[in-house]
Amino acid sequence: MDLGLGCIGVTRPFCANRVREAHRDRHADQEECGRPHSRESTKSSPARVLPNDARGTSRGLRRVTKTMTLRVMHLGALAFVVAMAFGGLPTRNASGVQKLPQSPLPPWASSGFVAYKCGDALCVMRPDGSGNRYLLRAGRPVPQWDPAFSPNARMIAFRGYYGVGDGEYALYVVDAGGCASRRLTRSIAGNPSWSPDGKWIVFDTSGEGVLWKVHPDGAGLTRIFGSRGADYDASPSWSPNGRTIAFLHYHRGKGQIWLVRPDGHGARLLHADAGGSDGPPVWSRDGSRIAFALQSGGGSSINVISANGRNRHTLTDRSQKAFNPAWLPHDAGVAYLAATSGTGSLFVTRPNGTDVHRIGRLQTGQFIWVAAPLARKGCGG
């Protein structure tokens, strides 16, 4: 899901400032997750190069500012410094690793783990706050955005920055232990989503507005779909049955949810709101529903529709400014962030909007909930 807000094709002064801020905040980010980033670069296999029409162009750079504006609406503040608080302020043990106080969780929201944006890195933790750590074992690439776990939770695709210039980010994969990071593309790529069989990763090209797919080893790069003219496409999400990819189609500056087959055929509108803008679609784990944030009237709310685009219902109040929905394991509920008093608080609710629980404050613009046990840290032989 971008849920990412990095330097994605915006003007060079903005991007340079963002990178400088990232370096200034690096020490604080290290303290948050409990261990320093290594300055050693990870070894990568030969990277794939996208064709010319997959690279950033002046047209893409111009309209990516529109994408940025919309994404800021959907994701909240641009660069939160990450800290999780469960029942109190974090403390540190003798080794300096952050220890998060426990807080009661509803049983239906206590399984799996959370991957989230922590400063310029990605971190993982269990829903109760335990096991909190950096995802990557080395500090490169940085910044890191858009985590997407493979169906078996053994691999993670993400967007990483290999340079400080406009559009100098690419698609990477790494194993669940945070080892053996590998770069798949040389050109702009983000918002990855895995096919249910784990054989493909679909992603977008941000400002250029085109959807592509590639194998996890970097082979088979294939263009799927891309609009012409002022319209553009982003934030793909592969359905659990593998037959359909949901994505955001931006028409006249407003997001609409569309569907397309993995071969690029059969693109069609699924949902559009006359008075608002849809956010990135998120399939339920059984494939029967799609959750998304709807931006309208100065606020945003979490909504759910059936896979056929009907039966829309709203889970949160628009004034709550909710964003970033994520389905819990077994579709037991929906987790989301809500911007309250300048912080992004983590909530869970049942799929019908009842039994709402605030389970902590996740000061970030991005997180996902993975339906698998948290992998052990460390790199095996």
What do you see in this structure?
- The chain is mainly beta and 381 residues long.
- The chain has two helices and 28 strands.
- The protein has helices at residues 12-33, 58-75, and strands at residues 84-85, 91-92, 98-99, 113-118, 121-125, 133-134, 144-149, 155-161, 169-175, 182-183, 190-194, 201-204, 210-214, 222-226, 232-238, 245-251, 254-260, 268-271, 277-278, 282-283, 289-296, 299-306, 313-314, 322-327, 334-340, 343-349, 357-362, 367-370.
- The strands form seven sheets. The protein has a five-stranded antiparallel β-sheet, with no helix packed on it. Strands 19, 20, 21, 22 and 23 form a five-stranded antiparallel β-sheet that branches.
- The longest helix has 22 residues, at 12-33.
- The two termini are 32 Å apart.
- Mean pLDDT is 77; it is low at 1-103.
**Proportion of helical residues:** 10-25%
Main sheet: strand order: 1-27-26-25-24
Q: Taking Cα atoms only, what radius of gyration do you get, to the nearest Å?
A: 19 Å
**Strand-and-helix sequence, N→C?**
HHEEEEEEEEEEEEEEEEEEEEEEEEEEEE
Secondary structural class: mainly beta
Largest sheet geometry: 5 strands, antiparallel
Strand content of the residues, in percent?
Answer: 35-45%
Number of strands: 28
Q: What is the rounded distance between the termini?
A: 32 Å
Q: Averaging pLDDT over every residue, what do you get?
A: 77
- Characterize the overall form: globular
The parts where pLDDT drops under 50 for at least 5 residues are: 1-103
Tally of separate helices: 2
